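#structure-requests
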Amino acid sequence: MGEIYNILKRERNKKGIYNCSEMTFFRNFKGILKSNPIFNKYLEIDNDFDIIRANIIIKSIINKDELDNIINDMYIANANVGVESIKDDIKEKISDLPYISYDNFKIYIPFFNKATNIIYSNESEKMFQYPYVSLFKKFEPFFVDAFETYNIDLFNSLFTQLVKISESNTSVAFYHYEFNAIFIINRQGTLDNIIYLFDKHMKNPHKYNIIEKVRPLVNAYYDNDLSLFIYLLYKNDLVSYYVFRKICKLYQV
């Protein structure tokens, strides 16, 4: 099916993509990735998946800064208050931050492992003790690769705009409403495929009930049923007749 994805990418309707919230967020906050050389690799953008990955890291950095400030301020302002009371107040203040549900625990900073996240969320008094005091400024010894550590869970979280459609033993399919695309992400957290929909030849694409429309398409993808996949692209109003015929001609179906 490889050439189908190339056709869909070439015929993609890019109108409005540049100003969508995902792209705008990246443009507005990408400077944060320059705050530490450890994040520089996320400035290298080749596709929309890289934008999603970069925004996850940006939000993680913002979370860390927020947590650092809250913890520092709470312990300074409430020096005479019990530690448990302070920790309860911290939990309340961070409740609206994006997180990953991982092993029945909320991970607020994905570039730290679970043990370090527990320090932030449940044992914050240790932040003022060695070696954790370095987390405020020189946190490199605690750094982990977020995507190698949390894999697919990172994409199925509040750090992204992705909506889960379906899954197989090896990957999970998500839909992104702004990019008008299906992202097939393997369980190691790397990209398998992007399936772009609603091409530039569609004058008034019908985008209602999109998850219901794309789910059978994803099932055909997982079944490796080429004919059904091509048929559903057009039947479910996901591509124009022009693109449909172009694909049919290529595969002689």
